[in-house]
Amino acid sequence: MSKIEICFSPRLYPVYEEPDAIVVVVDVFRATSTICGALGSGAKSVIPVETIEEAKAYKDKGYLVGGERNVMRVDFADFGNTPSDYSPDKVKDQDIVISTTNGTRAIEIAKNCYSLVIGSFSNLSAVANYCLAEQKNVLVLCSGWRDRFNIEDTLFGGALADILKTEGNYSVLSDSVQVTLSMWHEAKADVGKYIERSEHYVRLKQHNLLEVARYCLQTDTEHVLPIYDKETKRLTDLNRNR
Amino acid sequence: MSKIEICFSPRLYPVYEEPDAIVVVVDVFRATSTICGALGSGAKSVIPVETIEEAKAYKDKGYLVGGERNVMRVDFADFGNTPSDYSPDKVKDQDIVISTTNGTRAIEIAKNCYSLVIGSFSNLSAVANYCLAEQKNVLVLCSGWRDRFNIEDTLFGGALADILKTEGNYSVLSDSVQVTLSMWHEAKADVGKYIERSEHYVRLKQHNLLEVARYCLQTDTEHVLPIYDKETKRLTDLNRNR
Fold it and tell me: Is B75 touching A (CB cutoff 8 A)?
């Protein structure tokens, strides 16, 4: 029997780390929703980089770059951290570099696990199907906000745990997973309403990004499964090559 | 307006640290319940120490020592990590040294804050009254289990937040506090039933410590407010000297 576990902050990752697990990195608002959007629009790959300096170096080499810090687009970037920025006419067949406040850091931290995939509400079923097929232990790594717990990433963990428990007989016994399941049961009838309370939702609202926030809460708008390649340090869509 | 925040793991403390806040260290199962029990039984002070070696050194100097690692009493210790071990006939007017798996470590980490107090269900009202009188920001520091999130410490945070919100107009807007409040609302009608799901409850059950677990969930069995003195590195009962 496999189990699902959830880690509420990148800073806690060493405590939950399991080399043989699938790590699902989630940053609902907005990095992992954006990565799914870019690959869904036909980008060849997404290259996640941790620092603005790395992103700028790629930009200088001619790459298209998405960059965000503290909700705002970085000045030299071609895209911000919003899925719809990455439209097919701009990104199809391109390698896109992305650096964000929280999400790309979480990828960097977990990149040595068995397999690292990108999760968001927009590709929830794709992630669940991958886990169910692999039958490995699953660790959801919430990107959080500056290492703090956040509701939206945690809620994604609850949604995934609910599927894996129901369809895959996954064990959901850890304290953290049990709490995420309770959250999901409370939220699932109206996720948008539930999320209105989250700090980052309020932050996005202040930046006139409510429409984006709502988009990021829609389930299964993309069929992509972004998976990290340790050799090339890129995310590609595993489902596209199937 | 003051706010209450909750930190789910000692490892996250640097992220939530606020020098001017009251830090409430909680380890429901069982260190902070035990500390309240010892002071409630009339111990003059409790000296929390992080390592078994420090505890042994105190023992060699003639102190009474409580020591626990991984649920079990440490071999040289006079007491385990169970409140009823510390009966008045044994501890009255004594300075008691305590070292436990998680709780005493959390105290060590947070000892430089404005004031550090010990919280457990057994002294919930005493902690709430202290916070309401001080009107400072409050940070609940969950001891967790080996730096992992746990349900019982988090639930104490929800219970405290509920009182501070209702009686003190405290802000409870952070994502983590909102989740603890939801947990508390779900649990409060039957805390024992809710906690049955927790990993550490199961662990205590395996060690025939269910009765202790139930005791640790009772509210307001003690009127003590253990507060840490930075000079003497001891916890004393603030309420006794009032």
Answer: no
